[in-house]
Amino acid sequence: MNNIIVLPMALPIMLGIILIFLRPYIKTQRVLTVLGLLVTIGISIYMLQWIQTDGIIRLDFGGWEPPFGILFVADSFAVILVTAASIVTLICLIYAFSSIGEKIEYMYFYSFVNFLLAGVNGSFLTGDIFNLYVNFEIMLLASYVLIVLGGKRMQLRESLKYVVINIISSWFFLVAIAYLYAQLGTLNMAHISVLISESGQTPLLTVTSLVFLIVFALKSGLLLYFWLPGSYSAPPTAVAALFGGLLTKVGIYVMIRVFTLIFYHEPQITHTIIGILAGLTLIMGSIGAIAYKDIRQIVAYNVIIAVGFILVGLAVMTQEALEGAVYYLMHDMVAKSLLFLLAGTMITVTGEKRLDNMSGLIRNYPVFGWMFFIVMLSLAGVPPLSGFIGKVLVGQGAVEAGSYILLALGFISSIFVLYSLLRVFLNSFWGETIISFDDEVPMKKGWMVSFGLFTALMFTFGLGAEYFAPFVADAANTLLNPQIYIDAVLE
Amino acid sequence: MKINNVILRTVTKLAVFIILTLAVYLFFAGHNSPGGGFIAGLALSAAFVLLLLVTDIETIKKGIPLDFKKVAAFGAFLAVGTGFGAFVFDVPFLTQSFGNFVVPFFGEIELSTVTIFEAGVSFAVVGVVITIILSISEDV
């Protein structure tokens, strides 16, 4: 019994509810949200340390023992992502304070950001597959609201697609859970895993796993990403950054969890398909990233490339590759949020969306320009920044497993990432300035603080990779040896 | 458009009380038999919707001066708040406990902490349903 595990989810929910009553007091809402997030971050870091000494911790809600009750399971993988998600939310909110505008803040903005974080953290922590569905819904409902707040024409159009596609994928999710429950009669993920390893992964179960694969591919943007570039470019910058940093990552997390803990007996079918999908995602994401001149589209396609790259790690399934995937997930949450914030700010200060209409931004905003340069290097995987270690480890894993095609695609996609962002950098930051010094929109302090924090985090992840190594190794170890997870839940 | 439907108005005056009584019954039945906070909340909001149909929004707002968004939030607060009780009593999150108490006139009754949670669920359901109905009707 460790009630602390529920706090990363329960605290944001409670806070979100309280903020509804404090609707007119926007300053108070901001202070409370920041405090709540700081506490959540503190708790998750404490949990992470605790797991290293005592192993996986779990909490059975209401004292109902597994496999009968719902439970939260905190292993290193989950808690690393909870910590990263809470930190990213905090920094995106710092940006939102000075950019989102009072009108949106007044429409329960902070409540829904808290609900979104609660759904995300809950999805990471839960050990019950139906509870996972519920947490997904909490996250999605909050995201429906956040995507439409502001009510611009484009937001309404894109949110309609976003809602429809997510309702369809949620329906598939329910169907997949029903198939699984009909065959095994349990919803506890560890118990499902035990039952499958006892009875063997029958063809019917493999088919069920493919239904799950479709669901998570839709949610994370693995090949089925057609909805993503539109919906991620519609909402206000701070919200887009939250989405880009968090939402697809939840899909990736669940895919990794399900295909390492539950459906790992037939890798020649499931993991081969994941590998093929990841390869195609890398190819099509790379083409998309260089095909568009709208900055928001370029950034959104960069998200898709990262999804493909992380799932290469899952497809090859070696210790190094999974460690790389975990590192890359952490890195990508931070770097993608920063990239979205920078791209959104470029649009705000110039009023243009196409990269060839902007020019010479670095003369007006030198620090801003160099930060864009740093995030570009980080995403391309240049040491000592955060993207490097993840890429190397995934590559090493792919070599060990002999997946040379995925290896090649993964690294070629890095070049495309570099090229697509370098094109933005050359076109928009270099050259003659189009903004006269008198007309330039001043960079607000809050914006620079959030960019600075994200950049600092990227350096920390890159330079401090050694410090994070034991946590990441433990996460990958638990993923590779599902028995550790099962023992922690069912003992 | 103003319809003065005498039959509907007369029936409503009676029916609302029956529905409300049923809602209360369902609410307390829910602990060990079919019923519970969710459907009690739905029955409650059915009574409100019926009132809205036969009179008009202004009359109802005057009679029940509540912001239903706040009612929903209060319900959620109550429901989640009972979970936090676990931290005080040092038991797993959302643990329930119950006891039998002898109350004059009613005799021995069972009281449980789940009832507080269920009350929260009811408030949330009523708040959400009425908010949805009101905002749809304002649109038209």
From TrEMBL, chain A:
Segments forming domain NADH:quinone oxidoreductase/Mrp antiporter transmembrane: 128-416
Gene Ontology biological-process annotations: ATP synthesis coupled electron transport
UniProt entry tagged with the keyword Signal: no
UniProt keyword annotations, A-Z: Antiport, Cell membrane, Membrane, Transmembrane, Transmembrane helix, Transport
Record's bilayer topology term: Multi-pass membrane protein
Primary location: membrane
Source organism, top-level taxon: Bacteria
GO MF entries: antiporter activity; NADH dehydrogenase (ubiquinone) activity
Compartments reported by the entry: Cell membrane; Membrane
Membrane-spanning intervals of the chain: 6-25, 32-51, 71-96, 108-126, 132-151, 163-184, 204-228, 240-263, 269-292, 299-319, 325-347, 367-389, 401-426, 447-469
A GO CC term assigned to this protein in UniProt: plasma membrane
NCBIfam families: PRK07691.1, PRK12663.1
Protein family (similarity comment): Belongs to the CPA3 antiporters (TC 2.A.63) subunit D family.
Protein name, per record: Na+/H+ antiporter subunit D
Automatic annotation (TrEMBL), chain B:
Superkingdom of the organism of origin: Bacteria
Residue spans crossing the bilayer: 12-31, 37-59, 71-94, 114-136
Record localization: Cell membrane
Domain Na+/H+ antiporter MnhB subunit-related protein residues, every copy: 7-131
Any one cellular-component term (Gene Ontology): plasma membrane
Membrane-related topology note: Multi-pass membrane protein
Primary location class: membrane
Keywords: Cell membrane, Membrane, Transmembrane, Transmembrane helix
PANTHER family: NA(+)/H(+) ANTIPORTER SUBUNIT B, NA(+)_H(+) ANTIPORTER SUBUNIT B
Stated family: Belongs to the CPA3 antiporters (TC 2.A.63) subunit B family.
Name of the protein in question: Na(+)/H(+) antiporter subunit B
Organism phylogeny: Bacteria, Bacillati, Bacillota, Bacilli, Bacillales
